[in-house]
Amino acid sequence: AVVAACCGAALALSGVVLQALLRNPLSDPYILGISAGASTGAVGVAILGFGAGVLTMPLGAFLGALTAFALVSLLAFRAGSGNSAIILAGVAGSQLFNAITSFIVTKAANAEQARGIMFWLLGNLSGVRWPDVWLALPVAVFGLVVCLWHSRALDAFTFGSGSAASLGIHVRRVFIILTGICAL
Predict the structure, then answer these.
(1) What Cα–Cα distance (Å) separates residue 24 from each residue in 45, 83, 127, 146, 159?
(2) φ and ψ at 29, to 5 degrees?
(3) Phi/psi at 176 (nearest 5 deg)?
(4) How confident is the model at residue 54 (pLDDT cuts 50, 70, 90)?
(5) Residue 47: what pLDDT?
(6) Distances (CA, A) of 63 to 35, 43, 46, 77
(7) 182/184 Cα distance (integer angstroms)
């Protein structure tokens, strides 16, 4: 229950932060491809063995989420039509990373691995134990503290990045920090 609460709180916080940064009520980790990238990173570690035992599944998921959002941001930047482009690029990136995840599962996993990964991707928390709390709780609290630290910047972003910059906020730095926290 504690891990589920941490996951729900972190996803809600991530959605609120992304909506404030991008000024779009559709923004959330699923629409922008962050969750799909995290799934691909975790599946890459679990099934393909990326990282040769050095990368854990949560770290692989974090790196996948960062990679996905970097790709989505690059696509949106190349399109150059503002915040609506990042939503469209996010949908495309989400589909791309979901397809990569499905490809890895169907081609590289045995039946038992595929079943376990599919249950995990659907949000199965039945295998969570107390040691997992010591990962989920500090990460959720850290994300909350960082977002609260940047609450004034988030308020300014709701009026646009130009308004935030005119109020003395380092737009690029705050955007990178907060999107990194959303990926985390």
Answers:
(1) 33, 7, 35, 21, 11
(2) -60, -25
(3) -65, -45
(4) low
(5) 87
(6) 11, 12, 14, 21
(7) 5
16: left (phi over 0), alpha (psi -120 to 50) or beta: alpha
Tokens of 184: 């985390």
Tell me: the pLDDT tens digits for 131-141? 889 989 999 99
Identify residue 151 by its one-letter amino acid code: S
Q: What does the DSSP 8-state code read for residue 45?
A: I
Q: How many CA atoms lie within 13 A of 151 on its CB side?
A: 5
Contact 158, 18 (CB under 8 A): no
Residue 72: count of CB within 10 angstroms of its CB: 29
Query: Using an 8 Å Cβ cutoff, are 147 and 178 in contact?
Result: yes
Please state at what angle helix 83-108 crosses helix 57-79, rounded to 10 degrees.
Answer: 140
Check: pTM over 0.90? Answer yes or no: no
For the cut 90, the answer to whether the pLDDT of residue 181 exceeds it is yes
HSE-CB for 106 with a 13 A CA cutoff: 6
Q: 28 and 22 in contact (C-beta within 8 Å)?
A: no
